[in-house]
Amino acid sequence: MPFISQIQRQSDYAYFPSDTPIVIDNGASYFRIGWAGENEPRVIFRNIVQRPRHKGTGETVTIVGDHDPALLRYFDCTRSGPRSAFDNNVVYQFEIMEYILDFGFDRLGANGSQIDHPVLITECVCNPVHSRSKMSELLFETYGVPSVAFGVDAAFSYKYNQRHGICNEDGLAICPGFNTTHVIPFVAGEPVYKGCTRTNIGGYHVTDYLKQLLSLKYPHHMARFTWEKVEDLKMEHCYIAPTYASETRLFQKGTEEAEDKTRVWQLPWVPPPVEEAPSEEEIARKAALRERQGQRLRDMAEAKRSSRINELENELRGLEFLLLQLEQVQAHEIPNFLRETGYHSRQEIEASAHKVTLSLRKAKGEPKADQSEAEDKTDSSSEKYPLISIPDEMLTPEQIKEKRKQIFLKTTSDGRQRAKQKRLEEESERERRNQLDEERRLENPELYLEQTRARYKELSERVEQRKRLKTNGNQTNGNSGGVGRGERLSAAQRERMRLLTTAAFDRGKGEDTFGARDEDWQLYKLMSKDNDDDDDGPEPDEVELARISSRLQEIDRTFVPKSEAETSQPGSEVLKSRPLTQEDFKIVLGIERFRCPEVLFNPNLVGIGQAGVDEMAGVSIRRLPEKDEELEKRLTSSILMTGGSCLYPGMCERLEAGIRMIRPCGAPIKIVRALDPILDAWRGASAYAASAQFPQQTFTRMDYFEKGEDWIRGYKFRYTL
Amino acid sequence: MESEVVEAELVLPTHLSFKKVQMYEKYPKGQSRGRHWKHLKQILQAENLQNYPPDEPNYVNIESPPSMHPSVKICDITGLEAPYHDPRTNLRYANTEVFKQIRALPNEYVQRYLALRNAAVVLK
């Protein structure tokens, strides 16, 4: 990690006299605080605040800056992410700013009753007066600071580098920061804000772009791309291409150079445990287990059956005993006798005895058929149904009733007989066909197998087609874009719709004959909704398919019948269930390495229409109040890059190429990087605050209250010492 | 509080001797106080910049103008140059392989790719 916070508490606060200013570089990404005249800030931390809830006690606490993430496990951070006091590069949430200042002063070692030192704090270029006055109010009222000065970070950095001979009195400062990028022209050592330009793009956008791209490219590892991690990746791997188009062409061609430029980040990957094929022993054990379970179930069923048989036998015995008793009882005493048994007559008892016998027989598993066999035997019909052949006139009314009953019984038994006959015939037919098949197979096994397979395929396709038609209207699966009403209906539904619409029309002026024929009424049956699922038994094709597939299974071991799920959803399932390999845990950074920082030059990549860094330099020069070619030459021969986002390799070359394109031919162009693009702003401010002129640039609490807002708006810091 | 947390001084103390007004005095607990800050937009509106001469630099007028360079069109997925544009998803793509990929992308991902360049459909 190239950059680490320093948050150790300083112990020498008391040694500084009260006229030593405190210098604060209040950047949108990092907050730096230290003493005027020193070369390094004392405390550096990320300019963010979190207010999570402590898991143990439940109280809301304030955590400023970035800390060891391991310590955050004691806190519930789900409802409060890190928050910043900045909107773009302007401080707007002063509650958060106060927490940050609290933490900064606390770590600097402050322990008195107030901060009794002048404060120099940086702000953005042309800070809105609201923000500036709120900040001074905060410093004066809450911390008791005696006097305050505001300066621009990029200007301090430019002045610092000017003093070290890096850049000249006249020049351009190009400062790509965290949220915004500025270009500030300097004339005679002072910034000219009239010529200043700002584009709202910076390191934040680069990191965010990279983060989004990676999590879209590797959705499996989304959780790995934390802000901090991606920031690290950006700092370590991103670079700026000489020109975007040429660099992408390298990658498109897949040259060796491109391969060299591709970085791979291997995430920790543990191969999934390989599932070994179960051993013989295992199989045997499982089979035994299954067998045992089966046995138990069978035993249970057997016990249940025997208990039921027992029960039924007992009941039957009871009924028989009752009948025996009844025989000894006088006819007129029967009702009396039966009162407590719950039966009313002898016939009733006999009937229930018969019923019990039947269910007993069923329970014992004796074939029910012997009933029908018994019928068969006695089925000379004439003696069983004696009344049928006698004409009605010769019968008493009771006999007529009896006759009707007999007719009914006879027809049903006849029907049963016929069904049985049919079944037998079908069975023999199937037998015959199988036999035929078998013969053909024996004749030429290979040919037969092939024919059967072909037939199977044909049949399965046909059945499939019918099924699809039934459920889905036509073959496009509805996602082809056409979403007309007709296309979504199944065949049956469509037919129903057609019937309904034709029925709705008047049948013309002629005589309405609807209903004259019986078939007309059939229409309502077709229209009714129940008609949708036309379950008129299995189709002949399906029956044949089942037969062939079972036959194929018999003779061909490798044959696997197609399951429904398989045929309806090819592809997608397979993709999802593929186990992740080591390759999937590789994060490849190829084009992303220069695609993300490219947003500084082409903000329209992230949807911001403003000018990029190189174009801004031209705009800045154009905006200068008077046109002066000599001055322009002096400006372009001293261009300083400062700010965190100018650290990408290749930035300098790209910027030079870009600026050369917009400047007249032969114009001198010299671009230099600041000594330390990140800390120079603080160092410049520190050097400035230590100088003798600094107290004249500050304003006090009295000034703040007496001179009013307009004065604060006009407040302007002079950078020339 | 756990000893590690206390040792690291992770939590900002609620009372700091160098402050004249403490945080808990400014924002007493248990009182709803609503939003007490302005968005940047509101701040800029309150500046009343129209009352000042237009050539005086301020936060709004130092902003850069729209870019005059032709905008680069790159493939939303791969970052290569993108000569093509898919009318159904509105994504730009570089070649047929990428095209196949974007046609297989779920809509959520399409919208996220579009959001990267601020072109996603925003439902209000």
Automatic annotation (TrEMBL), chain A:
InterPro entries: Actin, ATPase_NBD. Residues 360-388, 408-439, 460-488 are annotated as: Disordered. It comes from Linum trigynum. GO terms for biological process: actin filament-based process. It is found in: Nucleus. Belongs to the actin family. ARP5 subfamily. One of its GO terms (cellular component) is nucleus. It comes from the Eukaryota. The lineage of its organism: Eukaryota, Viridiplantae, Streptophyta, Embryophyta, Tracheophyta. Keywords: Nucleus. This is Actin-related protein 5.
Automatic annotation (TrEMBL), chain B:
Keywords: Nucleus, Transcription, Transcription regulation. Pfam families: YL1_C (PF08265). One of its GO terms (biological process) is chromatin remodeling. It comes from Linum trigynum. It is found in: Nucleus. InterPro entries: INO80C/Ies6, Vps72/YL1_C. This is Vps72/YL1 C-terminal domain-containing protein. Residues 73-102 form the Vps72/YL1 C-terminal domain. One of its GO terms (cellular component) is Ino80 complex. The keyword Nucleus applies.
